[in-house]
Amino acid sequence: MKSVSSLRRLEIPGIATFEPGEGDLARLTVRSPLAEAHIYLHGAHVTHFQPQGKAPVLFMSQRSLFAADKPIRGGVPLIFPWFGARSGHPESPAHGFARTSEWQVESLSEDGDGVVVAAFHLASDERTRALWSYDFELRYRVAIGRTLTLTLEVKNTSPEPFTFEDALHTYFTVSDARQTSTTGLENAEYVDKTDAQQRKTQGPDPIRITAETDRVFENTRKTCIVDDPGLPRKITVEKSGSQTTVVWNPWIAKSAAMADFGDDEWPQMLCIETANAGANTLTLPPGKTHSTRAVISVS
Ligand code: TA6
C-alpha cells in the first residue's frame, strides 16, 4: 500500500493533500474554492464530492469496508473489465478488479479556472493477468470544480484485440429515492435484472423507484437528470463514450443481504451508472484507446 509520504511531492499546498483515510488507506483530499472531494488510491475511488455551498453529491454507505481486498461501497466504483457477474467465471470478482486495485497517482494539477485535476494509472500485472489474460493500461482523470468530470481511459497494450465492459458506477445521495424521478431514458430499451433479465421498454414517463430497481439501459447516449424534490435539487449526468446507463436501487431485501450496506440506507441513494455493458460490450484493437466520461452537475 502506497505511503502518503511518498506522495507529498505531488501535493498542491492548501488545496490538494494526501493523508491516511478510512482503514488507513491513502486518500487524496481536495478543498478548493470550487468544491471538496476525496479520492482513495484504492480503486481510484471517488468517495466524496461537494461543490462549495451545495449538499454532498455522492452517497457513501456507513457500513462500507475500507480494505485492500474489498470494494468501497458508495461513491464512484470503477468497473473494468467486466460488469456484474463474469459470465462463465463464477469465481471471478463481481464488476472486475479495477475497483479493488491499488492505483498510482500520475499527476495532480490546478487549471487556470481553479479546477483540480487528478490523474490515476493502473497497468496489467501478474495479478490481473491471473484473472484476465490481456495487457492494458487504464488512466482515470478526475476534474474537481463546480462539476465533477470523470474520464476512464482504457488502452489495449496487448498484441491482440480484447473485449471489455466498463462503468462509472456512481452512487448519488438523494433525500428519498421514492420521491425522485429520473428523466432521459424515456422509451429506452432495458434489461431488467430484477425480472430474469427480461428485455423491456421504459414508457414515456420518468423512472420512479417503487421497488428494487436494476435496469441496464442499452444503446443510449442520453443525459439523465435526477429530480430530487426533497432536497430540493436536480442532479445532471451527461456522458460521452458510453452507450449503457444503469439505474439501481437495492430496496429492502437486497439492502439487508449486503453486509457492507445498512438495511435502512436504500432510500438515501440512487445509482445512475455511466457504462458500456451487455449488448454495448466494447472491442478494442491492439494499441487503441477508449474513453468513458461522465460530467456530473447539481442545480
Ligand atoms: O449496477 C447494479 C449492480 O450490477 C447490481 O446488480 C448490484 O449487484 C450492484 O451492481 C452492486 O454490485 P456490488 O458488486 O458492488 O455489490
Question: How would you portray this structure in words?
Answer:
It is a single chain. This protein is mainly beta and 299 residues long. It has two helices and 22 strands. The protein has a single domain, classed as Beta-galactosidase, Chain A, domain 5, CATH 2.70.98. The chain has helices at 126-131, 251-257, and strands at residues 16-20, 26-31, 35-40, 45-51, 78-79, 104-110, 116-123, 136-144, 148-156, 162-164, 166-168, 171-173, 181-183, 189-192, 198-201, 213-217, 224-228, 233-240, 244-249, 269-276, 282-284, 289-298. Strands 5, 11, 12, 14, 15, 16, 19 and 20 form an eight-stranded antiparallel sheet that branches. An eight-stranded antiparallel sheet has the order 6-7-8-9-22-18-17-13, with no helix packed on it. It has a four-stranded antiparallel sheet with strand order 1-2-3-4, with no helix packed on it. A hairpin with a 3-residue loop joins strand 8 and strand 9 (148-156). The mean pLDDT is 97. Bound molecules: 6-O-phosphono-beta-D-tagatofuranose.
How far apart are the first and last residues' alpha carbons, in Å?
Answer: 38 Å
Briefly note the structural class of the backbone. mainly beta
CATH architecture annotation name: Distorted Sandwich
Order of helices and strands: EEEEEEEHEEEEEEEEEEEEHEEE
Number of strands: 22
Portion in beta strands: 35-45%
Question: Major sheet, described briefly?
Answer: 8 strands, antiparallel
How many helical elements? 2
Specify the helix fraction band.
Answer: under 10%
Assigned CATH class = Mainly Beta
Overall domain count: 1
Radius of gyration: 18 Å
Shape type: globular
Bound small-molecule species? 6-O-phosphono-beta-D-tagatofuranose
Average pLDDT:
97
Low-confidence stretches: none
Q: Which fold name fills CATH's third level, the topology?
A: Beta-galactosidase, Chain A, domain 5
